[in-house]
Amino acid sequence: MSAHRAPRRTLAVLAALPLLALAACGYGSQAKDSGEHAVAGAAKVDGLESVRIGYFGNLTHATALVGRHEGLFQKELGGTRAEYATFNAGPSEIEALNSGSVDIGWIGPSPAVNGYVKARGGNLRIVSGSASGGVKLVVDPKKIKSLKDVKGKRIATPQLGNTQDVAFLNWAAEQGWKVDAESGKGDVSVVRTDNKITPDAYRSGSVDGAWVPEPTASKLVAEGGKVLLDESGLWPGKKFVITNVVVSQRFLKEHPKAVEAVLRASVKANRWITAHEGRAKAAANAQLEADTGKPLPAAVLDPAWRSLAVTDDPLAATLRTQARHAVQAGLLQRPDLTGIYDLGPLNKVLKAEGAPAVDDAGLGVE
Prior knowledge:
This protein is α/β, with parallel strands linked by helices. The protein has helices at 62-69, 72-77, 90-99, 109-118, 163-174, 198-204, 216-222, 249-254, 256-275, 277-292, 298-306, 316-328, 344-352; strands at residues 32-35, 50-56, 81-87, 104-107, 124-133, 135-139, 154-157, 189-192, 209-213, 226-230, 241-248, 308-310. It has a 7-stranded mixed β-sheet, sandwiched between helices. A 5-stranded mixed β-sheet has the order 8-7-9-6-10, with helices on both faces. Strand 7 (154-157), helix 5 and strand 8 form a beta-alpha-beta unit. Helix 7 packs across helix 11 and helix 9 packs across helix 13. The longest helix is centred in the last third of the chain and has 20 residues, at 256-275. The chain is globular.
C-alpha cells in the first residue's frame, strides 16, 4: 500500500434524503465494544480516562485495524485508555458519534456527508484521510463480456444512495443510459443488496454483477467473477476517498490534544503499512479475525489489499465530486459542505513528522 470521558452531547437528527445512507463498506449495525490497558505510569492526554474510537471490521479501514493491532493508538494516548467500537454500517457509527458513545472514528465519505448535512453542519468534522480506492465492477463473464454488455443487466450496489450506488448511477449516466435512481429501474437494473449477501446473490444468478468495495469485490472474483472496471481508473491520478477519519465537534474543541494523539497514531500506522506491506496485511487480517471471528482467505485478502492505498490526505476534492454526482442523480439536494473539514490538527502532526500539509479543497472551517 502506498501513502503515505466528560459528558457528551446528543445532536438532533434532521430529515434528509436517503442519499449516503450506508458507509462505503458498511454491512449492518454496531458489532462489539472493547478496549486496551492504558500505559502504566503515563500521563492522561487532556486528563481523559478514555478515548472511544470507532471503525469497521473491513479492509478499507486498514489504518484503524493495523493501528489497533500494533498498539499504536494506545501508545500515543499513554495513560488514557483506548476503547474501541466496531461497526458494520455508517448510520450506526454516526449515531454513536452524535450521542457521544464514540469520540472519533473511521468512516466512509457518504455517511460523513450525510451526517453533516442532517445536523446542518453541527456534529462532526473530517480531520484526516485514511484510504483510497478499493471499488470495482465485477461481473459474470458468461453474461457480460464488455462494458457495453452491462446495459440491460442486473447490477448490485450496497444501498440506495451509498457511495458505490452513486458512483454506478453516475457511470451509467455517462454511458447515456437512463435509470430511475429511486427504483433502480431503467436501461440497467440497479439491485440494492447488502454486501454480506452479494456473493450469494451472484452465485444464485439473481444479479449479473456488482459495483462494490473490497473485500466484497474479491469475494466475487473468488466465485468466478471478472473485474470489468476498477473505479480508480475513473478518477484523476487514480485516487478517490473511500475512508476518512471524523471526530465530534465538541470532542475536537474540548480535547484537541487527544485528537492529535489519535491522528499521530493514524499517520504512523499509514507509514508502517507502507513500509511493511506483508506484515501490515497480516496484522489487518488478524484484527479482522478478532473483530469478526473470521479472517479473510488469501485468495480474497491479497487482491483486495493490492487495490487499496492508505493515505493521510482526505482527497477532499473527490468528496466534493462525489456529492455533485449524488445531486446529478437526483438523490441529494445541493449540500453546503463548507466547514466539513478541519485539517489543522492533522497538518500540525504532519509538519512534526516532516511531511507536507494536505488540502481541504475550500471546504474547511473558516
